[in-house]
Amino acid sequence: MGSIKNQLENFKPEFKINVLRRILQVVFSLFLMAAILFLSSGTWCWLFAWILLGVSLLIIVANSFILPPELISERGQKKQNVEKWDNVITRLIILPWLAIYLISGLDYRYRWSSEISLSIRLIGLVIYILGNALITWAMVSNFYFSTAVRLQYERGHKVSNTGPYALIRHPGYLGMMVYHLATPIILGSIWALIPAFLTVVLFIIRTILEDRTLKAKLEGYKEYAEKVKYRLIPGLW
After folding, report:
1. How far is CA 39 from CA 102, 111, 180, 189, in A?
2. What is the pLDDT of residues 132-188, one digit of tens each?
3. Which of 10, 60, 157, 194 has minimal Cβ neighbours within 10 Å of its Cβ?
């Protein structure tokens, strides 16, 4: 976080407020995850819950040094001209996202799932880290990476075609889907894969609608889509 503080000294107060708001949003999400996991499991003595939270915290800290303050500020500011359908989908995504942690905690308490081996859990942890790394790479490569689907007229919105965007059109969503699917594996809950898959379905729907919106409204995106043919998985879709 010190890196952000040093870079913010020359920015306007509103910019700093947006950055602070985004930091608080991310920290709140982490505390919410922890609260759901430990309350639903009924114990603090859950090793893989602590591992998941610890790795998530390390990713947040790493991103604070890697991501440009301008991007963090945009993600923290109050959004304008957000697509109406995106307001609906982002609210829907919250439900299965929370259910992943709730069901995982209840599963740990009542032992609904068969034991997942340590090696599989560690593979899940690696996949979780790689999914988050892909998101970070996408954010670094895309100055307009936002929490909402909107045309950022105030920032001179342009097509991003470098980094992972040279391979697929929505790498951030792919990273999000990957780490959501990896989370139940880390926590040892087969049942929590159900809301994880629901989250993936909603991200696929969001990908389709965002792609359609950008083709219609963002200059140069149609040409970019003709060059980079795949939305999420190279060679497949």
Report:
1. 9, 15, 20, 16
2. 999 999 999 999 999 899 998 888 899 999 999 999 999 999 999 999 999 999 999
3. 10
